[in-house]
Amino acid sequence: MPISKAPGPNRRNFLLGTLVAGATAALPAETQTTNTQAPQQDRTYWLQQVELVSNPVLNALKAGSLRQKMPVEAAPGQSQARAVGTHLEALGRLLSGLAPWLELEPSAEETKKETALRDRYRDCALAGITSALDPSSADYMHFGESSQTLVDSSFLALALLRAPKHLLQKLDAKTRQRLADALNTQRKVQPPFNNWLLFAAMNEALLMTLQQPWDRMRVDYALRELQSWYLGDGTYGDGPHFHWDFYNSFVIQPYLLQLIDTLGNESPAWSTMRKPIHEHAQRYAAIQERLIAPDGSYPAIGRSITYRCGAFHLLADASRRNMLPEGLTPPQVRGALSAVMQRTLGPSGTFTTDGWLQIGLAGHQPGLGETYISTGSLYLCSAVWLPLGLSPTAPFWSQPPAPWTSQIIWSGKNAQADHAHDE
After folding, report:
1. 3.40.1350, 1.10.287, 1.50.10, 3.30.40: which CATH number matches 9-410?
2. 392 within 8 A of 107, measured Cβ to Cβ
3. Stated pTM of the model
């Protein structure tokens, strides 16, 4: 199948302006529990967002021209430094959000268009990973040449662990060895005493999966420190102290869930962490859902806010894992996340004229980007798409729309009070 071009700006704005009308986010609260067309419209809308964001990156990866084509927007004076790792950021972060959908097998209920799109994206992803690890390729990603590559090698590792059949196992033997070598180069980066410990641990988890020598101490150190940083009510410190930001969702809790999935049975001490990690994630998912306002906006608090809808990585992950807390239904979350996507991916200025993401939360707002933010960083927004890894017949997609918590409360309807869940 030929690789399609990214939609031009006029078509992109048309899609963003019209497809949202079929999404749950745009439905009045009074009609959300009766419109039976909305579930399929929602999945269609999500896949439209996947295409809008992903096409420029994946098409360039397939062609071996990501470094040539992707712009490097960064804070003043930072473009050259960011250019070392920003392409790996785009690759790893985008695929970490797409991976469960790339792993999904087609079903009778799935549209032919979705099946064809996934097949094409699998092909692009495998070509991109192969090029990223090939020193002779123009798209070689220079693993280990900056501390930032520790972060984004781990996002690539996360993607491969989320799609073992259709990504990891489809890599040829030479590429798998190059992958292991690349992960080993990251060990020279000493992670700071915060969520970066989890990046090092995720790389070791993939090395174990690859049946390569791996460092148990790096994993154990990360898991034990995060355990000690738990502050209560579903929230971890990013280090020993609490930070007002979204890092519990951007990194901490989704990484803990995957590490326990992959390595939990490798040590009795790690196995005992599984239950509290899951319980904390459920509580934090409940908090995240309540942070989403009736219009899909949410507090613009803390660093890395330009990851846009990736702020709800944990809520999306809890949904695709079918581990939402009691009282929170899949269609509530579907509607809330649809609204968040509209607010963060829909505004004018989100994309360049060539379809690349630009720094901002609700449009092009370069002042919101920290010095470590660059174009590739922004593709963490893909984390919101994790529920696409669920079949169209799963409750998340098949159940009729329902208002999310803030819509219920701020419309004046009765609702249950929220309470802290402390150990």
Report:
1. 1.50.10
2. yes
3. 0.92
